[in-house]
Specification:
This protein has 431 residues and is of the alpha+beta class. It folds into two domains: 4-103, Helix Hairpins; 119-428, BirA Bifunctional Protein, domain 2. The chain has helices spanning 4-9, 11-20, 27-63, 67-103, 141-145, 152-158, 168-188, 202-208, 232-236, 294-311, 358-363, 394-404; strands spanning 123-128, 150-151, 165-166, 192-193, 199-200, 219-220, 226-227, 243-245, 251-260, 279-289, 316-320, 332-340, 345-354, 366-368, 382-383, 385-393, 412-413, 427-428. The strands form five sheets. It has an eight-stranded mixed sheet with strand order 1-11-12-13-16-10-9-4. Strands 5-7-6 form a three-stranded antiparallel sheet.
């Protein structure tokens, strides 16, 4: 959500920033709505003041015996009050329209974010590791996985496309990845583990920006709740409608949850395998920070995600997304893309974004600064900044491990850091 005061102060800058996100100029229409609403509110105040003044005069007129004049003032007050509900209703309707218009606009891109229309405008920030050369023709994960307990056919019968059964050692490898990621994020990087709700109200999804714009990508239950598309929703909304003390910040949360996405906009894309599923597991990272901390926190969060890939010895690259490829709420996003030998390409495995105060305004989450001015007076509350990222997507990491650690005979070696989580198993052999 955007601050209308910033739009009032510099409408040209507002339009310029949104133009970078591919949005046509909005300031003239928004300011017109804003001014009309303010004019109506001023009219209400004026009418109320007139009614109050007339009401006071009535008593004085009656006291002087000026009955006719008192009756005229009563009629004046009645006329004023009769007109006010319509004005209040119009002001409220315009306020709702203005809020809806502002809520439908994406966040401003941070300085340094490259301009571009789509993923072709993204910029490679760094590479880590060399693209794996297996010494034989690499297979894709779904081909290898069928011999290792990965069953898409049975899942298709039970649930339809974009689902999978994992069995045996492959199921354990999937579990090991999630547990290892949680241990890394909590024990090494200081995130607090949370078990959050998987069903949320619409207000929570509005707060993090999925609603109303992306409803078609979500699953809704018969009682009006929604299945989370990512634990970002539950974790970030944990502080909704709160005023935090600055001393509490930063807050860092992590959770390993199932996530549910309709993938409405992905028809025909990645229909094979586990890259794009309706149900998948992910370790989510969320930070709630003071504005001055958000840039450093963004780098810290991204490194927390990268450290998992490095421990697994999976080659990856960090991408700085361009304005046309960023998510709706993001001001800056780093994508981590892991090398998949079977596909001979890098694929996204994590997305780490700073959302500045965009989500905080939608959730009404603020903090009270600890510092005071020279007179000892505390400053007013400020909106927090929110950040979120994947640390990592478990299913896609399983894909990356299978493809990078495959052997010529269809087996998969277990990454060294996962062997303790696998009960000492070092190789998953095909059935």
């Amino acid at each position: 959500m955007h601050d209308i005061r910033l739009l009032r102060d510099d409408p040209a800058a507002f339009d310029t920033d949104l133009a970078r996100r591919g949005v046509s100029p909005q300031s003239a229409e928004l300011l017109a709505l804003d001014q009309k609403r303010r004019d109506l509110l001023t009219e209400l105040q004026t009418r109320q003041a007139s009614a109050n003044g007339a009401a006071k005069a009535i008593g004085a007129l009656i006291g002087r015996g000026e009955t006719q004049e008192a009756e005229a003032k009563k009629a004046e007050v009645a006329a004023i009050k009769e007109a006010m509900p319509a004005i209040e209703a119009e002001a409220a309707a315009i306020g709702i329209e203005l809020d809806d218009r502002l809520a439908g606009l994406p966040n401003r891109a941070a300085p340094g974010v490259p301009e571009g229309a789509d993923e072709d405008g993204n910029v490679i920030v760094k590479h880590w590791g060399e693209a794996t050369d297996l010494g034989f023709a690499a297979k894709e994960h779904d081909e290898i996985g069928r011999g290792l307990g990965m069953d898409f056919d049975a899942a298709g019968v039970v649930s339809g496309a974009r689902f999978v059964y994992l069995k045996g050692a492959t199921a354990r490898l999937n579990r090991a990845l999630g547990q290892y990621m949680l241990d890394q994020q909590t024990q090494v990087h200081g995130y607090t583990e949370v078990v959050p709700p998987l069903l949320v109200r619409g207000e929570a999804l509005f707060g993090t920006g999925q609603l109303p714009k992306f409803a078609e990508d979500l699953f809704q239950t018969t009682d009006g709740r929604w299945l989370i598309p990512t634990a970002e929703v539950s974790l970030t909304n944990y502080v909704r409608e709160q005023i935090l003390a600055e001393q509490e910040l930063p807050l860092r949360f992590t959770a390993l949850t199932n996530c549910f996405r309709a993938e409405a906009g992905a028809a025909g894309r990645d229909t094979r395998g586990m890259i794009r599923q309706h149900q998948f597991e992910k370790v989510e990272l969320v930070s709630i920070v003071a504005p001055e901390q958000s840039d450093d926190e963004h780098e810290r969060m991204t490194r927390a995600a990268e450290s998992v890939l490095e421990a697994l010895k999976l080659p990856y690259r960090r991408m700085l997304l361009c304005t046309g490829d960023m998510g709706f709420t993001a001001a800056r996003t780093f994508d981590l893309e892991v090398w998949l030998p079977g596909q001979q390409r890098y694929r996204e495995i994590s997305s780490c974004s700073t959302c500045t105060d965009f989500q905080a305004r939608r959730m009404n989450t603020r903090f009270r600064p600890a510092a005071t001015d020279a007179a000892g007076k505390k400053a007013g509350t400020r909106f927090v900044h929110t950040l979120n990222g994947s640390g990592l997507a478990v299913g896609r990491t399983l894909v990356a491990v299978i493809e990078n650690y495959q052997t010529a005979d269809g087996a998969v070696r277990v990454p060294q850091v996962l062997v303790p989580y696998m009960g000492g198993l070092t190789v998953i052999e095909p059935a």
